[in-house]
Amino acid sequence: MKKTTSAALLITAVVGPGVAMAASVSAPPRCRPQRQTLALDQAPVVQLAILLDTSNSMDGLIDQARTQLWAIVNQFSAARRHGRPARLQVALYEYGNNRLPAARGYLRRVLPFTTDLDRVSEELFALTTNGGDEYCGTVLQAALDQLAWSSSPADLKVIFIAGNEPFTQGPIDFRRVCQRAARAGIAVNTIHCGSRAEGETTGWAEGARLAYGSFSTIDQDQVAEHIEAPQDDEIRRLGVKLNETYIPYGASGRDGQKRQEAQDKNAQGSGAGSATSRAVTKANRLYSNAGWDLVDAVKEGGLDLGKMKADDLPESLRGLTKEKLQAEILARAQERERLQREINRRNVERQQHVAAERRKRGKGPAVETLDVAMTDALRQQAACREIELQ
To answer: Which of 139, 162, 49, 77 is nearest to 348 (CA)?
Structure first.
């Protein structure tokens, strides 16, 4: 829980089309040798477990996770393997906080694997820091035991653990846990909030090496640079406009809609970059709310409108016949697709503008922040499963 100062270590990754960023500090993670032929013709699943140190001095790390979530997610918006789109699941843990039970190793599973990205954002904004003991081996073991990991060796399964105390702390040997993860085909990526030298001597580099992961260092208090572009205001406006195309239904409908609006506000309050990235996320396929939105539910084919009860619908739609309800859903879907196409068109223009601006300013690689470390490792590990990102 002590505060350390990061070494200025520059890395290279891509956070959006045409924008050169920083990369992992270590050599590219090795592809784990496979003992069987991978079923690479199936649609890939990407399982991403994020383990965050929430002890004292980690406020900057949590802020980076909150503000950069959407940029990280956007890496997978166009992810494909042999033309088949990838599905993204995200899980979240916190550890090292003495508000958490000591008997459980000062850790908490915040979320199991979920496709509900608004829930992930909501929980990140609910995290608070407090002094504690950071047991990396313990939280890694919990993630291995408690999460519903895919059994397919063709799926991409990764853990990111970030913190600043020695990786060796706690009653569970991190080496044994990392070797177990490697056997299960789960890459463990370690992100040390401090200098490279300290991360190498306190187990962070070794943990990544044992689990075919990437070792990186970041400055948890660094604020990622955002280059404003002429397209940003309109992208953000259209992102909020998308909310009008959602039709809440069922017991979770109202809560889902409120959560969506709340995460829009959280992104806006976190800075222009976060709000723009969130709008781009909402314009792409990974942002699906079939659990509470009729448009997504019908699109995914998991809902029979004939069995819908009037009470499950918003008051304004309760008097509609089935045919008129279908027509309303179709109209909302078409409007959503139009808005999404416009956001994505403007985002391509935006990325071109940012790339040109960086060249004009003579900008080098970006500073070392959480999204930069994660996107570089994810890009390289996805390649091990023949998954192409943007």
So the answer is: 77
Q: Span 12-225+368-384: which CATH code?
A: 3.40.50.410
Tens-digit pLDDT profile for residues 203-215? 999 999 999 999 9
d(CA 202, CA 56): 19
Three-state DSSP string of the chain:
CCCCCCCCCCCEEEEECCEEEECCCCCCCCCCCCCCCCCCCCCCEEEEEEEEECCCCCHHHHHHHHHHHHHHHHHHCCCEECCEECEEEEEEEEECCCCCCHHHCCEEEEEEEECCHHHHHHHHHHCCCCCCCCCHHHHHHHHHHHCCCCCCCCCEEEEEEEECCCCCCCCCCHHHHHHHHHHCCEEEEEEEECCHHHHHHCCHHHHHHHCCCCEEEECCCCCCCCCCCCCHHHHHHHHHHHHHHCCECCCCHHHHHHHHHHHHHHHHHCCHHHHHHHHHHHCCCCCCCCCCEHHHHHHCCCCCHHHCCHHHCCHHHCCCCHHHHHHHHHHHHHHHHHHHHHHHHHHHHHHHHHHHHHHHHCCCCCCCCHHHHHHHHHHHHHHHCCCECC
**What gap in Å lies between CA 171 and CA 193, rounded to an integer?**
22
Closest C-alpha to 153, from 182, 178, 177: 182
- 248-273 tens-digit pLDDT: 999 899 999 999 999 999 999 998 89
Q: Which residues contact 258 (CB under 8 A, 6 or more apart)?
A: none
Mean pLDDT over each residue of the chain, to the nearest integer: 88
User: For the segment 24-64, what is each residue's pLDDT rounded down to a tens digit?
Assistant: 344 455 777 665 566 667 889 999 999 999 998 899 999 99
Domain limits, the chain:
12-225+368-384, 232-361
Residue 142 main-chain phi, psi, to 5 deg: -60, -45
Supply the pTM of this predicted model: 0.88
- For residue 212, the model assigns a pLDDT of 95
